[in-house]
Design goal:
Layout lengths: L5 H12 L4 E6 L2 E5 H11 L4 E5 L2 E9 L3 H10 L4 E9 L2 E10 L15 E6 L11 E7 L4 E7 L2 H11 L3 E4 L7 H10 L3 E2 L9 H12 L1 H7 L3 H16 L12 E2 L7 E2 L1 H6 L14 H5 L5 H12 L5 H16 L1 H11 L5 H10 L4 H23 L1 H4 L3 H6 L3 H14 L20 H28 L4 E6 L3 E7 H4 L7 E5 L3 E5 L1 H34 L1 H27 L5 E3 L4 E6 L4 H4 L5 E5 L5 E5 L6 H15 L9 E5 L3 E6 L1 H5 L6 H14 L4 E6 L7 H19 L2 E5 L8 H4 L3 E11 L2 E10 L6 H8 L4 H15 L4 E3 L8 E6 L4 E4 H12 L2 H7 L3 H12 L7 H16 L1
Parallel strand pairs: 1-5, 7-10, 9-12, 10-11, 13-23, 18-22, 21-25, 21-26, 23-24, 24-25
Antiparallel strand pairs: 1-2, 2-4, 3-4, 5-6, 7-8, 8-9, 14-15, 15-17, 16-17, 19-20, 19-22, 26-27, 28-29, 29-30
Helix pairs in contact: 4-5, 6-7, 6-8, 11-22, 12-22, 13-15, 13-22, 14-15, 14-21, 14-22, 15-18, 15-22, 19-21, 29-30, 31-32, 33-34
The structure holds adenosine-5'-diphosphate and magnesium ion (MG).
Pfam families: MutS_I, MutS_II, MutS_III, MutS_IV, MutS_V
Keywords: ATP-binding, Coiled coil, DNA damage, DNA repair, DNA-binding, Nucleotide-binding
GO biological process, one term: mismatch repair
């Protein structure tokens, strides 16, 4: 290929210097992509490709008008691409171009999504060296709001838990993490983020600590008391934000340490099982968040979601939230009023970032102004409603510097026009009275405009003309247009510039002079206003911390009012929280299922002597729902919410762990027995006496006796060693026997009944184990012939007593003994033994029964060698298919 020159050459040389996936380069009024980039963009975004010829070669080219770039950038970034943007600027010798920004998923400012948009860095402590460098360091930044958090994590699992909690869109793995296939694999599986390899130097701990101190101040950083690896992660994030040119470092005003210890541990699996922010199918609708979210603002919604993902352990924090929810749920009128006002609020944290970045326009400043006005209005309602005034709400609205907020609002009120345009370079952004020089320009501008506006009338009067209009367009500038009939009678000083079908256009010396005036004044006004506007925008950017505080206060009120609304509309009650073991829920409901179902409420009673419930009941009776309901109620209580029950007393927990048996998950191709066991192992390692553990059919992913044994041993361990509050749903009736031996284990069952020959699920949870022969009973009800039903009762009896069962009617039509083999979980019949014996005897009957041809034997061997635990379900199916085909042959 020949060396490209000119614009195309410039493009390729800029492209070579960036590590972004794509480059777009400004060429006059367009941003252009060339070569492969053009082809890729056109494929992804349905953009038209043309050919650009340059010195005998031709290159694909695709472009978008300057003003339309944002949506295209967004779309590309959302597809995971990192896009470099090169702007054009004037030089003495013409144009030059330079990459000014690399837009990436984590640094995209132009998001319209209400969700938080975190970028994360993960650093493995061992790469840091030194004594305090155990574990992992994490940093999270949301460039759209200026939020910046750091966290230490003890091990990879904890790191993953936090990563899942923050759900970042882009992750910068540290140098060591990049080679950790295990961690990267899990990260890819659980977090839908772009992995970016940021320069290794940026992760150097010394440099990181320095960058972080520069940004947030030495004292703040020391107070955080986080590990070196965590400062390294924070430093890497800061350097990345700077390097990509997002220009929002100024809006990152505070660094906060996220302490896992203040929060309820919720591992990734639990967050998914409880469908906190999306359902198992991946929909937002139907999640716990979607159900309880009645927030008015996107910042409020973001905060409520954050609360759900990070429930708290501190009684003080929780009781404070409860008190606010309580007050707001009873003061319905005041709540309505507050929510109406919140409906007028914009996203202040996002606006602060836009101001810092320099992309806020005058309308954004109007939004700031209007939102700043919401705070005193909300405060006023709170202060004038006794129930609210006495609640923690008054402290929340007082937390931001209200005087400073009022000052900034007044400045914006004096400065920015009522309804400014979104273009910032053409004037009419600012009010009269804001700046003397501008006032003068505006006055003269308006004078000339007034003269132009009234010109048509004057000409009509003075020269007795009819059908006269004065207007302007790009080619003719200002002109006087006279209807054809009157065009012959125009005065001599009119100079004709154009003839149209029904009219003629003229100009005069005076009009041309005024036109020059107006253009000059427009230019001057646009320039001056832009200058003043930029100053004003910088002033707003400097108040980023204030805007974030006000935004936070409004978001908090919004989230609390949302909890109050949901509580009031659904008859939820305030749970009594304490530090003890007791968990008592009277007439509890599942917060999501109750929305769509005639829900049958149920009690829960757990305490020091009853800390482990074995939940039995037929399939589909409601076991899983019951247990999830308990977990959801505890979780809701620990975000400060009311709960769906008549009354509840809840001992706060330090973690909620759930695991659903692999069989249910296997069906969805999500899990293998191996995963089930490693998650069980994780629970057994990390749960404590203060945790809540929910095990749903654990052990089901393997052969019966294997499963029972694992479930049995896990129960003993949880009961004796871990001592966590546990609910264990199982269809292994054997486990109900544990209640007799282990003091804290109790049986409950979900009742089902038979009336008029039909099974009714009562959905009522009662003490004691379920009826063991329920399945046979259902078979009976379903009309299975009596002899079969009677016989199954017999077999069941024998099985329970682990006695041999006679298999009736073997090949020889004689009764055969079969024993359930504990080792393999399969039936061993004596007739098999006998026929094997017969074949060694060489008897004719034995031959036919025992002879297995080598082909079949090979199939059996292959079958045996398949590892069910590690083979993906789809592959299993195809392997079995293949074995079947071979058998048929
Ligand atoms: P199991 O785990 O015992 O197989 P599930 O918990 O999956 O049963 O519940 C089966 C069905 O019964 C679900 O559709 C669920 O919505 C419904 N259900 C469960 N508990 C209740 C209840 N208390 N009130 C009303 N419907 C319920
Ligand atoms: Mg279930």
């Amino acid at each position: 290929m020949t060396e490209a020159t000119g614009i195309v050459g410039e493009f390729f040389s800029l492209k070579e210097d960036t590590d972004a996936d794509l480059l777009t380069m400004q060429c006059g009024d367009f941003y252009e992509f060339f070569g492969e980039d053009a082809e890729l963009v056109s494929e992804e975004l349905d953009l038209k490709v043309s050919q650009k010829s340059s010195h005998g070669s031709s290159y694909p080219m695709a472009g978008v008008p300057i003003d339309d770039l944002t949506p295209y950038l967004k779309a590309l970034v959302e597809r995971g691409y990192r896009v470099a943007v090169a702007d054009q600027y004037e030089t003495d010798s013409g144009h030059a171009r330079e990459v000014v920004r690399v837009v990436t998923p984590g640094t995209l400012l132009e998001t319209s999504d209400a969700d938080a948009q975190y970028m994360a860095a993960v650093v493995d402590g061992s790469e840091v060296g030194g004594a305090s460098s155990d574990g992992y360091g994490l940093a999270f930044a949301d460039v759209t709001t200026g939020r910046f958090l750091v966290a230490d994590a003890a091990d990879p699992d904890e790191a993953l838990t936090e990563l899942y909690r923050f759900d970042p869109v882009e992750v910068l793995p540290g140098p060591e993490v990049r080679t950790d296939d295990d961690l990267l694999g899990k990260l890819r599986e659980r977090v839908d983020a772009t992995l970016t390899l940021h320069e290794t130097d940026a992760f150097a701990p010394k440099r990181g600590a320095h960058t972080v101190r520069e940004q947030f101040g030495t004292e703040t950083v020391d107070r955080l008391s986080v590990g070196e690896q965590t400062l390294a992660a924070a430093g890497a994030v800061l350097s990345y934000v700077e390097e990509t040119g997002a220009g929002v470092l100024a809006s990152m005003t505070r660094i906060q340490a996220h302490h896992g210890d203040d929060h309820v541990t919720l591992d990734a699996t639990t967050q998914r099982n409880l469908e906190l922010t999306e359902t198992m199918q991946g929909d937002g609708d139907g999640s716990l968040f979607a159900t309880i979210d009645h927030t008015e603002t996107s910042a409020g919604g973001r905060l409520l979601k954050e609360w759900l993902q990070r429930p708290r352990r501190s009684l003080e924090t929780l009781e404070e939230r409860q008190a606010s929810v309580d007050a707001l749920s009873t003061a319905a009128l005041a709540r309505d009023e507050i929510q109406d006002r919140l409906g007028e609020a914009y996203d202040l944290a996002r606006l602060a970032s836009k101001a810092s970045h320099g992309s806020a326009d005058a309308r954004d400043l109007v939004a700031v102004r209007e939102t700043l006005a919401v705070l005193p209005a909300v405060a006023e309602t709170i202060e004038s409603t006794p129930a609210l005034a006495d609640s923690p709400l008054s402290a929340i609205v007082d937390r931001p510097d209200r005087a400073a907020a009022r000052e900034l609002r007044e400045t914006l009120e004096e400065a920015v026009a009522e309804d400014p345009p979104s273009t910032v370079t053409q004037g009419e952004l600012l009010r009269k009275g804001y700046d003397d020089e501008l006032d003068e320009v505006i006055e003269r501008h308006e004078e000339v405009r007034e003269w132009l506006d009234t010109l048509a009338e004057r000409e009509k009067r003075q020269h007795g003309l009819s059908h006269v209009t004065v207007d302007r367009n790009k080619t003719d500038g200002y002109y006087i247009q006279v209807g054809k009939s009157a065009a012959d009678g125009v005065p001599d000083h009119y100079e004709q510039i154009k003839t149209l079908k029904n009219s003629k256009r003229f100009t005069t010396e005076e009009l041309e002079e005024k036109e020059r005036d107006v253009l000059r004044l427009e230019d001057r006004r646009g320039e001056l206003e832009y200058e003043l506007f930029e100053e004003l925008r910088d002033e707003v950017a400097e108040r980023a911390a204030l805007l974030q505080d006000v935004g936070r206060a409004l978001a908090t009120i919004d989230a609390l009012a949302s909890l109050a609304t949901h509580a009031a509309e659904n008859r939820w009650v305030r749970p009594e929280l304490h530090r003890g073991d007791d968990l008592t829920i009277e007439q509890g409901r599942h917060p999501v299922v109750e929305q769509t179902t005639e829900f049958v409420p149920n009690d829960v009673r757990m305490d020091e002597d009853r800390g482990f419930l074995v939940v039995t009941g037929p399939n589909m009776s409601g076991k899983s729902t019951y247990m999830r309901q308990v977990a959801c109620i505890v979780l809701l209580a620990q975000i400060g919410s009311f709960v769906p029950a008549e009354a509840a007393e809840i001992g706060v927990v330090d973690g909620i762990f759930t695991r659903v048996g692999a069989l249910d998950e296997l069906a969805q191709g999500r899990s293998t027995f191996m995963v089930e066991m490693s998650e069980l192992s994780n629970i057994l390692h990390t749960a404590t006496e203060e945790s809540l553990v929910i095990l749903d059919e654990v052990g089901r992913g393997t052969a019966t006796y294997d499963g029972i044994s694992i479930a049995w041993a896990a129960t003993e361990y949880l009961h004796n060693e871990v001592k966590a509050k546990t609910l264990f749903a199982t269809h292994y009736h054997e486990l109900t026997g544990l209640a007799e031996n282990l003091p804290r284990v109790a049986n409950v069952h979900v009742a089902a009944d038979e009336r008029d020959g039909e099974v009714t699920f009562l959905r009522t949870v009662r003490d004691g184990p379920t009826d063991r022969s329920y399945g046979v009973h259902v078979a009976d009800l379903a009309g299975v012939p009596d002899p079969v039903v009677d016989r199954s009762r017999e077999v069941l009896e024998r099985l329970r007593e682990e006695k041999a069962i006679e298999a009736k009617g073997g090949a020889s039509n004689e009764p055969v003994q079969a024993v359930f083999d504990l080792g393999s979980g399969t039936m061993q019949t004596e007739s098999q033994d006998r026929s094997q014996a017969a074949s060694t005897d060489g008897g004719p009957a034995g031959e036919s029964a025992a002879a297995i041809d080598p082909e079949t034997e090979a199939v059996l061997e292959d079958l045996e060698s398949i590892d069910v635990n590690t083979t993906p379900p789809i592959e299993l199916v195809s392997q079995v298919q293949e074995l079947q085909e071979r058998l048929e042959e």
